[in-house]
Amino acid sequence: SAATVSLANARRVADVPARLFGSFVEHLGRCVYGGIYEPDHPTADADGFRQDVLDLVKELGVTCVRYPGGNFVSNYNWEDGTGPRDQRPVRRDLAWHTTETNQMGIDDFYRWSQKSGTEIMLAVNMGTRGLKAALDELEYVNGTAGTELADRRVKNGIEEPMDVKMWCIGNEMDGHWQVGHMSPDEYAAAVDRVAHAMKLAEPALELVACGSSSAHMPTFGEWERKVLTKAYHDVDFVSAHAYYHDHGYRTHDTIEMQDFLASAEDMNYFINTVADEADAAKAINHGSKDIAISFDEWGVWYQGRWNEQETAWAKSKNGLHHGAWPTAPHQLEDIYSAADAVVEGSLMITLLKHCDRVRSASRAQLVNVIAPIMAEPNGGAAWKQTIFYPFAEAAHYAHGDVFAPVVESPTVTTKSYGDVAAIDAVVTWDAATRSGLLLAVNRDLDAAHDVTVSLAGLPGADGAIAVTHAQVLHDDDPYRTNTADEPNAVTPADLAVSTAADGTLTFTLPAVAWTAVRFT
Ligand code: AHR
Predict the structure, then answer these.
(1) Atom of ligand 1 nearest to the CA of 69
(2) Which of 65, 141, 390, 435 has the fewest CB atoms in 10 Å of its CB?
(3) 252: helix, coil or strand?
(4) Which positions fall inside the Alpha-L-arabinofuranosidase C-terminal domain (predicted)?
(5) Is 99 within 8 Å of 93 (Cβ atoms)?
(6) pLDDT tens across 56-99, in order?
(7) Which of 72, 169, 171 to mutate to test the pocket of ligand 1 (most atoms within 8 A of CB)?
(8) Equal CATH topology for 2-9+400-519 and 17-397
(9) Is 159 labeled as catalytic in the residue annotation?
């Protein structure tokens, strides 16, 4: 059966925001320690950063990194990670029930961000702290020398202000699991005060209010309305977080897998609903600015699998204060399949199609913890998970403007979303360089589909189109993964594409597949 993707009446969505290709580094498991920072590793540089990981971060094309959490930030003292390493305190982290050595902190992360060429997006602690700590951290990070905290930064070796623009005011404060979680009214009042004061210090900051931890939280919608109505004038973004996984992975249940392949439907609903609530808050405030969405945690995460992996540790933590507080244990180290990569590719297409509203996004997370990059311990190598490829392609080649094509596709029936289009697609086109990228997925678990793409409607792209690179990620076994021993088990292969003089491309997408076609 066949699908058509037409640019003839395509909607230009917006320019591609650089921050759409962000990621997330949390003090969690081996993301920081044994991930980006491992001074004893053979590839470690003078700052203790793993060069093999840095190389893969660059190859991934990450633009912006959210730090230091996540749930971790809600019981974190930013000062603990500054100053001489041998004087930094060791503390308990309540979020992940681990020991935090503070051998990495904001100064070190700043140095890492310079080496990785990424923008920093910082989160402040609204769980155990609040206004005063946020203002102090802002002065330390961005202040010009001459005041106490800015001078402390200079003394610690960072002479210039770090110039961090984006700040998240807390993390998932609607979640009962969050240290210091709040009701919608409590958080609305708190974020309003903190955002207001931070903007007094630096009006050009871009501030992110916590939105809902998923579209299925009991306060979803009400939370966004109350928070954004109260803090409208001082916040610029509202966050959204969404994780998906195949609930039938243990038994290879086909109904669950088909549902999982359509996860982007949930993300689509989430974005549209938050946008509606943000617009309502704008109207109530008689405002002129749109509040953007920072989709600052997204990806595939097998939450149940983590508990299985960590059984011994999970049991031990139940033993009151005698439980284990390991340092940088193996936590949330999901190993991703070919199907997981297709879903992540599909989520990226959805983010691009909404980039008029979603102006920032962070795939969660970057290394070892639900991550595209794995870093083996004990001097081992770093390697790429299946999900690395769809992200890297978009990060490197989605330039210019985003166009949402008109897609006519066979449908698949899903448990949660009804009948949905098997084929989804988006196109980016850079008129200045006359280069474009088509990203598409086949979300059908069972059937291959022929796809005809008519690119003729792209502005300034009249006439013949030349394909410069075409790849497909697919495996006949959608559950196949890459591993440390076999890191190239699932990688993109060349895709055969026919081109016609009128700018039409045709190809066949196998069941459960992601594809990228670069053209000029
Ligand atoms: O990314 C893992 C966790 O997921 C983060 O700490 C938290 O914000 C979310 O619940």
Answers:
(1) 6
(2) 435
(3) coil
(4) 296-513
(5) yes
(6) 999 999 999 999 999 999 999 999 999 999 999 999 999 999 99
(7) 171
(8) no
(9) no
